[in-house]
Amino acid sequence: MLTTWIIFFGYGSLALGTPIPPTLQSPLRPASVPSYVLDYAPLVYLHSEDPYRPADIGSQVQNTRPEVDYTFIPGQYDLNNLDQLNLFGELYLTSKVDIITNPGWLKGVTPNSCGTTESAVTCAVITTDHGNGLVDAFYMYFYAYNWGGLVAQISSWNVGNHVGDWEHNMIRFQNGVPIAVWFSQHNNGQAFDYKALQKCGDRPIVYSANGSHANYAISGEHEHTIPNLNLPINGILMDFTDDGPLWDPITSAYFYSFDISTSTFTEYNSSYPTAWLNFLGHWGDKQYPDSDPREASNIFAGIEARYSDGPTGPIDKQLHRANVCPDNGNPCLIRETLTA
């Protein structure tokens, strides 16, 4: 088990973003969802210039086709039977059209004035009960496409793009009281004491980075070359966040519980599809070979792909984790002041 460290560093006072609209739509509470899971749910600022908004989870399946080693697997699949594809090995939901044409479905749905992605279920909320009043609530955010950004901000040095993008916040509760919040970012992320975060009422404010959708606790520039540390400087690998459209993920979400002992999901509403949560494959294309025309002009070929593998889904995000942070070899630092 990782040791949790508490650290005390930051960049002084931070200006809050634009005021949160008072018209946020109240979610219809599914039966049996703990009230605190909704009362403390994150609110997400999308980047103002990001063309790739949150996307409908089911539409991703309809706009892709299952492939293993670039070979099509025939059949009809949707969120109700997607887990049947696990029988075929390492599988990729591959775009039906060449993604360099930038098809419209990759762009997702911009939230309306109430923060809702209309006609699109763009989030899955999953609760994990550890016993003794300790509950984790995972807020899984889905985007149809991840734009990886630029190395050293050079326009021709674009790497790390992929079809499909799962990001998340996790809030740890003790007896219904929020303790700490995890922010997923690239290969790792950051954890904060709940009290340190900017909030609208009781709800933490999250900033989604332009293109990459990594989640941050403050707006601005984030240099993320070093795991566990995002510096507010212009560097090699940069994320950018600002107060763009406000997204209230729980207004367009499925809700589930996850049983640690059996590794099974149970829907809070019988109308929700559940089989897709057991899908072990990738929610996007397999990384293209270096010889593929889409990689031909990549000067980082063999080091970093321009188009990398699509991500795995919520089941692969350590829903059973012991600490607030996932167990990935990095120390679990719970920050008590806001940092980049």
TrEMBL record:
The keyword Signal applies. Keywords: Signal. GO terms for cellular component: fungal-type vacuole membrane. InterPro entries: Vps62, VPS_Associated. Residues 1-17 form the signal peptide. GO terms for biological process: protein targeting to vacuole. PANTHER family: PTHR48220, VACUOLAR PROTEIN SORTING-ASSOCIATED PROTEIN 62-RELATED. This is Vacuolar protein sorting-associated protein 62. It comes from Lepidopterella palustris CBS 459.81.
